[in-house]
Amino acid sequence: MAAALAIRGLRGGRIPPPPHPTGPLRGAASGALQRLGEWFYEVEVVLGWAERLRRRRLRRKNAHYSFIQSLHGHNVAAACFAMSCGGRVRFEGQQRWLCADSRGRWSPEVLQFHHVPVVAVDLSGSQLTYDGLDNFVLLTKLQHLDLSGCPHVDDWALGRLHVFGDSLQELSVARCPRVTERGLATLHQLPKLRCLDVGGLAVQSPGLLRILLEEMLPQCRVLGMEMEEGDPPKAPPELGQPPPPSVTAL
After folding, report:
1. Cα–Cα dist 197/221, whole Å
2. Model pTM?
3. Residues 85-103 pLDDT 10s
4. Which residue spans within 17-156 are E strands per DSSP?
5. First to last CA, the chain
């Protein structure tokens, strides 16, 4: 039969196409494809469910401590929220920082500072979001705020820091991946800022941005941004002034 088909092919005759697979072979292939499609669908459902669960936990973690605030005041509520996020706080007149224990439980000692204002908050590396700042907006004497390494702090969160314009003196947003030049531009609303750490931010021309920050906040020391390759060179000398002397090789 194969020889006959080959002879017909050489003579110009039409060779019939191979028969379509039927029977058990075709059923096995279609079943495998169906199971593969179902598997991909199940993976997509699981990933979507996991993302929704992560967002729900993040919202719950940044909930407003309104109940504690109604019982013990906004300073204690802010302190409890910061410690629940793994951060620490310091009250006015105190040298010691308060933080949660290894199990994440904060000490009842914080309740004795009912009428003592919070002056320093360290939330570095925490899961703080824009909504979580609701717990700090009433702190009228906050002087130090560390948000370095917070993955969810973005430009919108920086724009909300204007409520601390009358008190905040030290701020760190170093290594915050969602902070850009737009968020840094809103810091002009903090006229009393004396130290700003912006190291490790993914911005273009960090040297130029540092110059702009220093012009925007003339009384503030900017840390973490140095001139790098690709930054604009220094301005040429003004007309009428001699150029700088050249260095000749010895």
Report:
1. 8
2. 0.72
3. 999 999 999 999 999 988 8
4. 88-91, 98-99, 118-122, 144-146
5. 92
